[in-house]
Amino acid sequence: MTIRVLLADDQALLRATFRLLVDAAPDLEVVGEAATGLEAVERARIERADVVVMDIRMPEVDGIEATRRINADDSLAGVKVLVLTTFEDEELIVESLRAGASGFLGKGVEPAALLDAIRTVAAGDALLSPAATTAVIERLLAQAPTSSRSSPQPLADPLTEREREVTALVGTGLSNEQIAEQLFISTATAKTHVNRAMMKTGSRDRAQLVVHAYETGLVRPHTQ
User: Fold this and answer.
1) Domains of the chain from N-terminus onward
2) Angle CA(100)–CA(3)–CA(121) in degrees, nearest 5?
3) Which of 63, 81, 127, 215 has the fewest CB atoms within 10 Å, i.e. the most exposed one?
4) What is the pLDDT of residues 39-74, one digit of tens each?
């Protein structure tokens, strides 16, 4: 199955470069381009893209607001956003994830890594660069109230004890395979727990579950 990609960047040269790279992959196809945040939202609706590769600094509305609008649109529920930017600033990273982005990469990433990132977020997994992962952890811990870090808050639709445990491990950056190894369960079972946790917490994907883990205190300081 071919992954449909929308490129959103205000620089035409970069869009052209990314198009050549993406279209060269047999399982990826560029279905549209956008030069502004507003255009990115509109083109996502028209082209029915699977993944939007989104710049942050764009005219009219920026990439974070465009991501927020895509995330809030029920008709675009299956669309994933991969933020690709020059600015790996921790505040931008956290705001991007809270807006609904599934991944965050710097533009200095290797071409093959970008293609793999598109495939990763299309499959529903989270993708963060090492710098982004560190920044998210530090920022969320710094912003979370002391009370929420000391004990997890009750959830409207409570997770089971195992789902809480798995969510906490997702928050520390572990893959399904690593979670399975740590909990002595199968990878398939770990994936099932992760999927159920995402459903119960209203998380669109793994990135949103990471945010949830920190904001509810399931992951505490010095546990990662």
Assistant:
1) 3-137 (3.40.50.2300), 145-215 (1.10.10.10)
2) 30
3) 215
4) 999 999 999 899 999 999 898 899 999 999 998 998
